[in-house]
Design brief:
240 residues; alpha/beta; 7-stranded mixed β-sheet; two-stranded parallel ribbon; 8 helices; 9 strands; 39% helix; Polyprenol monophosphomannose synthase; DPM1-like; transferase
C-alpha cells in the first residue's frame, strides 16, 4: 500500500496516458495512480482500464459522464483519496509537461521537509519553461505575479498545476466551497491553504510543453483567473 496518490485528470489523452502511467510507476518511490477521465471520446479511459490488470491495486480510474472542468475533476479525485488511506495527494497533468522524475521531490518536500503543500514551481528560480511560445510564457509569468500582488500570497507560481497536498490540508479546506473550475482553481486552492496557515513550499521544476495531443487552455480559463483573484482578495477567506 502506498501512502501517496497521483491524480491525473484526462480528456482525450490517448497519445500520452499509457506512457505517463508507466513513468509514474517507474519511480523509486511507490505511487498509486488515479485517472479521472471525463468521458474521453478518443478512448483514453479504455486504455487505462486495459492497464489495470497489469497494475492491480495500484492503478484506478473514475469515469465521469461529461467534461466538467479541471477543478471539478481534481475535487472528485481529492474526495476519492480522502475516503482511502492516502496521506499525500499529488496533482499531475497527463501530457508530460510535469516530469514524473519530480514526483519524489514534491513528495519529500512534504514528507521529509515540513511542507503541508509543495508546488512544482516554474518561477521560483527564474523562468523554467521549455517549448512554450513567448506570448504564453509572458501570460503565465505575469499572471502569477499579478495573483501574488493582488492576494499577497507568498508563492511565485500561483497557477501551477503540479502540486502535492498533505491529507490534512484537503481535509481542512471545504472542497464543496471551491468556486472556480478552470485555471483559477489552482489559485483558489493555494490561497485557501495559505489563509488556513499551512506551510507552502516551492520546488523548482522545468515545465515542458506537451508534444502530443492538444492543449486545453482557453481565453475563458485565463479570464476566470484574472478576475477571480480580485473577488478572492475582497472576500478574504471564504467560509469553511
Amino acid at each position: 500500500m502506498s501512502d501517496a496518490l497521483v491524480i491525473i485528470p484526462t480528456y482525450n489523452e490517448k497519445e500520452n496516458i499509457e506512457a505517463i502511467i508507466r513513468a509514474v510507476f517507474n519511480q523509486k518511490k511507490a505511487f498509486h495512480v488515479l485517472v479521472v477521465d471525463d468521458n474521453s471520446p478518443d478512448g483514453t479511459g479504455n486504455i487505462v482500464e486495459s492497464l489495470m490488470a497489469e497494475f492491480p491495486n495500484e492503478l484506478f480510474i473514475e469515469k465521469r459522464k461529461g467534461k466538467n472542468g479541471l477543478g471539478t475533476a481534481y475535487i472528485h479525485g481529492f474526495k476519492w483519496a480522502l475516503q482511502r488511506n492516502y496521506n499525500y495527494i499529488i496533482e499531475m497533468d497527463a501530457d508530460f509537461s510535469h516530469n514524473p522524475k519530480d514526483l519524489v521531490r514534491l513528495y519529500n518536500a512534504c514528507h521529509k521537509n515540513g511542507g503541508d503543500v509543495s508546488i512544482g514551481s516554474r518561477y521560483s528560480q527564474g523562468v523554467n519553461v521549455v517549448n512554450w511560445p513567448m506570448k504564453r510564457v509572458l501570460l503565465s509569468y505575469f499572471a502569477s505575479k499579478y495573483v501574488r500582488f493582488i492576494t499577497r500570497i507568498p508563492v511565485f507560481d500561483t497557477t501551477a498545476g503540479f502540486v502535492c497536498w498533505k491529507r490534512e490540508v484537503l481535509e481542512t479546506i471545504n472542497l464543496d466551497k471551491i468556486k472556480f473550475i478552470g485555471y483559477a482553481f489552482q489559485i483558489e486552492m493555494k490561497f485557501k491553504a495559505w489563509k488556513h496557515g499551512f506551510n507552502i513550499k516551492e520546488v523548482s521544476v522545468v515545465f515542458t510543453d506537451r508534444t502530443l495531443g492538444n492543449s486545453k487552455m482557453s481565453g475563458n480559463i485565463v479570464s476566470e483567473a484574472l478576475f477571480g483573484v480580485i473577488k478572492m482578495r475582497i472576500n478574504g477567506l471564504p467560509k469553511k
